[in-house]
Amino acid sequence: MLQDMQEPIEQAGVGVPDNFQRLWTPHRMAYIRGENKPTGSGPGDGCPFCEIPKMSDEDGLILARGSTVFAVLNLYPYNSGHLMICPYRHIADYVELNEAETAEIADFTKRAIQALRKASGAQGFNVGLNLGQVAGAGIAAHLHQHIVPRWGGDTNFMPIVGHTRVLPQLLRETRELVAEAWPS
């Protein structure tokens, strides 16, 4: 329960009370620690994008499956509905895609945008690839394209000051809504 910001909250043993409310996000520690990251660059080195298609759609947070690619929610999203399009084939570079994979990634990108607009009323999108670790790829060994829905005013002080993202919906609920809205 939030208290008046003028009254410091007493927290025995945790330091000097101040006027800040705390929003604890312990689930982010898995990302910070690099849990479930591949141990190497091969498909047998614990690549989550190779393991996810073996799971049920619900357990793997899969939105749609194609013949060469699949769409999956990001486990560490920037915004609700942040998803990725991944080829089934374990490749790292965009130029390694064959024509069928390239075409299906483009098609799935269009479908993802349509589904996110329908499910959440997204007003804009960031769509992109981070090729290589130095370009920001968290898992550089397996190509994946990000699609991040955006809304006017969706940024606030939390990511800047608190290094925390506030998401209004659980991933399973988001998966259900976007999967239901996915065009056939």
Q: Would you kindly provide a written description of the structure presented here, covering whatever features stand out?
A:
Helices cover 28% and strands 14% of the residues. The chain is of the alpha+beta class and 184 residues long. The chain has one domain: HIT family, subunit A (2-Layer Sandwich). A 5-stranded antiparallel sheet has the order 1-2-3-5-4. The longest helix has 22 residues. It is globular and about 40 Å long. The N terminus is likely disordered. This is ATP adenylyltransferase.
Topology:
Layout: H1 29-33, H2 48-51, H3 57-60, E1 62-65, E2 69-73, E3 83-87, H4 99-120, E4 124-129, E5 145-150, H5 157-162, H6 171-181
Antiparallel strand pairs: 1-2, 2-3, 3-5, 4-5
Helix pairs in contact: 4-6
Short note summarizing the structure:
This protein has 184 residues and is of the alpha+beta class. It is built from 6 helices and 5 strands, in the order H-H-H-E-E-E-H-E-E-H-H.
